Amino acid sequence: MNAVTVRGGTRMGALISAKNLMVVRDGKSILNDVSLDIEDHDFVTIIGPNGAGKSMLLKCVMGFYKPEGGTVFRRSGIKIGYVPQRLVADHTIPIRVRRFLSLRKKVTKDAIVNAARETAIEEILDQPLHVLSGGELQRVLLARALLDDPDLLVLDEPAQNLDVSGQLGFYKLLDHIYAERNVSILMVSHDLHLVMSSTKRVVCLYHHICCSGAPHMVTRDPEFISLFGDDMARLMAVYNHSHDHAHGHDHDHHHHDDGERHAG
Amino acid sequence: MGMTMIITITTTGNAMPDDFILRAVLAGVGVALVAGPLGCFVVWRRMAYFGDSLAHSALLGIALGLLYGINVNLGIIIVCSVFAFLLVWLQQRKVLATDTLLGILAHAALSIGMVAISFLETARFDLHSYLFGDILTVQTSDLYWIYGGGVVVIGLLLANWSSLTLMTVHEDLARAEGVNTVWSNILLMLLMTIVVAVSIRIVGILLITSMLIIPAATARGLVTSPENMAIASAVLGLLAVLLGISGSVEFDTPSGPSIVTAAAIIFAVFSFISVLLRRRRSSAS
Description:
The structure holds 2 protein chains of 2 kinds. By secondary structure, chain A is α/β, with parallel strands linked by helices. Chain A has helices spanning 54-62, 97-102, 109-118, 134-146, 164-180, 192-195, 215-218, 222-247; strands spanning 6-9, 16-25, 28-38, 43-47, 69-75, 80-83, 152-156, 184-188, 201-206, 208-213.
C-alpha cells in the first residue's frame, strides 16, 4: 500500500494533484487508482452514477478524508471554498444570513457585502435562514464559500435540489463567478448539459476514471455511452453542437491526453 | 415519601431559613445560567432524549459515589462520561438505532443504580430527593461544584461557539471547513454530563432535561440570533428558578417540580403571547 502524503507541494504546476487514490470502505473499493489534476482557473465537472465515489473524491481532494492509498499534493496556502449539496435550514435555530456568513470566518462587513452582491443575496442578508427558498440557500452557501477569496471552489451537486429555473440561475451565476474571478472549479454535477459551456474537462467516475476530457470528446467515448446510455450521449451531442457554434473553439489542449485514459 | 419531604423542609426551614434559601437560590441561579445556553444546543441538535438518558444513568453514579465513599458529583460525572462514550462507540457500529441504544443504556444504568443502592447500609438514602431535587440538601460544597462546573461549561461553550453553531447548522460544511465534528459532539455530551451532575441537587434526575429544554424552547420565539437565544434562555431559566424556589419555600413543595412548573408556566405565557402577536401581524398585513 502506498504511503499517503498530503502536503503543500512546491510545484507550481497543478493547484491540486491527486495521484492513484485508493479508498476502501467495508471491504468495497470506493476509489480505485483515481488520479486528478486541477490547474489554475480550471473547471472540472465530475459525473457518474450514484455511489460511484464522487463525493469521496471531493473529500480526498479537500483533505478531510485520508485515502488508503495514493497521494494528494495541494499547493501550499491554497484556499478552498466548499459548497455542499443543500442546506436544510432548521426552524429551531434562529440565525440570519448575515450571521451564518460570519460563523467561523474572520470577515469584514465589506467582504460580506461584496460576496452578497456577487451572489445576489443582498436583499436577504437580514432574513432568517429558514424562510429562504432552495435557490436562495444555495446562493448563500456559494457566498460563504467565496468569502475567503478561494483558489478553488468545490461543489457537490450544488443544484441537485433546485427546480429547473433554479438550476439555470445557479449555473449562470457560477459561470459568471468563474469568468470574473481567478478561481478553479471542481464540481460534481449531473446537469452536464447546463454546465457544458464553461466546463473545461469532464471526468466520468465509476470507482475508477472511466473517461475524461473536453465535454464533446467525453460524450463520444464508448465508456461514457456504456455508463450513461446512448440517449444521454445523444442528448449531450446536441448540447455540444450548439456549444461548438456558440464558442467555435476548443478550450483545451492540455487535457486531451487525459481523454484516452482508461483505468482498471 | 412526599410527606417526609414536606416535613423535612418545614423543620430545617425553620432552623436556618436565611442560609438554606440563600444557598438554594445561588445554586439555582448557577444551574439556570449554565443550563440555558447549553440547552439551546440540546434543542437545536435534538439531544433531549440523550439528556434524559444521561440523567437516568446518573443514579448509578450516585450509588457508586455512596458505596465507595467518593464525591457523588464526581461519581455522576464518571458514570455519565462512560455512558456517553459507550453510546458514541455503539453508534459508530450502526447495529441499532440511537434511541434503542439510549433506551438500553439508560434503563440498564438506572436499574443497576437501584440495585446498587439497595445494597447501601444507610437506610437514610432519600431516593425521592435525588429524583426530584431537594434544595435542602444543597451544601456549600455543592455551590463550588455548580459554579466550578458552570465556569468550565460556559468557557468551553464560548471558546467553541462558532464551530458548534456552524456544525449545528450544517455538519458537512463544518467538517469541510476544518471543524472536528466528532470531537465537538463528544464535547457537547461531556458538557451535558457536567450540567446533569451539578443540577441533580436542585431539579433531580427526572427533571434535569426540562431545565435544558424548556427555557431554550421559550427563548426560541423571542429571538433572531443563536447568541440571543442562549442569553434569553439563561434569563428565562433564571426567572423559572427564582419563581420555583420562592414557590417551593412558600408552599412547601419539592424544589425540582416547582422550578419546572414555573418554567412551564413561563413557556405557556410566552407561547400564548407570540401566537397573539403573530395573529395580529398577519391580520394587519
